Amino acid sequence: MAFEPAPFDVVEASRRVWLQHWAPEAASGMAVYTAILRSYQLLNDQVQQVMARHDLTFARYEVLAWLATDPESALTLSWISKTLRIPPATVTNIIDRLEDDKLVRRVPHPSDARTTLAEITARGRKVATDATEDLNSTVYEGIGLSEAERNKLIDLLAQLRTSGNEFDVERSEEVLEDVTSRGASKPRRKGRSEVA
Amino acid sequence: MAFEPAPFDVVEASRRVWLQHWAPEAASGMAVYTAILRSYQLLNDQVQQVMARHDLTFARYEVLAWLATDPESALTLSWISKTLRIPPATVTNIIDRLEDDKLVRRVPHPSDARTTLAEITARGRKVATDATEDLNSTVYEGIGLSEAERNKLIDLLAQLRTSGNEFDVERSEEVLEDVTSRGASKPRRKGRSEVA
DNA sequence: GACGATTGCTACGAGACCGAAGTAATCTTG
DNA sequence: CAAGATTACTTCGGTCTCGTAGCAATCGTC
């Protein structure tokens, strides 16, 4: 289960191969994708080790963490599917597992009989908190860049995501205000659970 | 199969949640991971669509592409496993599938009876070339950043990977020279297939 | 207010992925 | 040169994932 370093920098190797063997004009794009892929593998491996300690997968944790910080402690399955970009069938499976472990409960939606709410249990909240603290100290705080470099990286990736339409650029700001105001005393215009 | 944008920027939303609800000191690290994850999802989706057109998965393509540019047209399974960081059992499975499709052939190693070489076939080379051209034009050339920004991004991710020991930093340079000289007339000190 | 379109979720099945254990060949060390 | 350790690969079994199809509720439109 230990993470073994590759014998050399595969991103740089690929870049050189692309420059001399394939298409030079695609080399930087290829290197971006490969660098993102391998950075993802690196971090994902660490994340998974943390998740294993809490009997979770990252997908299950993600759902749990969003539920834990939701003011209603409940979200619709379709909201989860769209926001975390998890196919509906996979959401069903994830909620099934979380329910098996008593971390979440299915609740019918009060006004729309088609939709189901996932509601976090006290036990689920505890697991979410524990796993988050573990993640924070084990992985997130140890990512090896300065604060300025991290912000630059986050910014460049935001540009990449924006240009690739990874999220609804038009409406994002508006929804973000709503998310940010959670827990504050002022009433929110529209419940998060209703966004879907 | 169409890629649906998330309703808002989940990276930025998570960052705000971390700042106000969890641990502020872990917020930038969390945002880095989430940004990498979602950038990966964005690009991976595009890559997979290309792969599907060529009856490949990305893992199978990656193996094929390395074989296609190897001077011997052959690599040991263990080299593939270590370099592309694919577990041995998965390499076996990948080579099985590639062999089913006649894109690759298993060949015994000339001097070590334990090791097996995967050798690319003419058909495999054609598929690798077609898929690469498709990938280049469909995904890699269309990544939305300037050349300077791409290089900055590649550089930051290289720092991240270096600090996380994603590859053997000590020996990487030496091996890279070897990789780069492939196809050149001068004899290489040591065959790539022998690196393992 | 009825009917077609849409939305929300689930059941099913196939495939990718990979940990662990097993087999076989090679290396190491005395 | 004979164990014992190591290396290379495969087999097996389990989990996660997700495309497709189906069902049920709701919405939109005339």
**Share in helix of chain A:** 55-70%
In quaternary terms, these chains amount to homodimer
Structural class of chain A: mainly alpha
The share of residues in extended strands of chain A comes to: 5-15%
Polypeptide structure, described:
2 copies of one chain form a homodimer. Chain A has a 3-stranded antiparallel beta sheet. In chain A, helix 4 packs across helix 5. Residues 183-196 of chain A have low confidence and may be disordered. The longest helix of chain A is centred in the first third of the chain and has 27 residues, at 27-53. Chain A contains 8 helices and 3 strands; from the N terminus they run H-H-H-E-H-H-E-E-H-H-H. By secondary structure, chain A is mainly α. Chain A has helices at residues 10-21, 27-53, 58-68, 77-83, 88-100, 122-138, 147-163, 169-180, and strands at 74-76, 104-108, 116-120. Chain A binds a DNA duplex (30 and 30 nucleotides) through residues 1, 57, 59, 76-78, 81, 86-94, 96, 109, 112-116, 196.
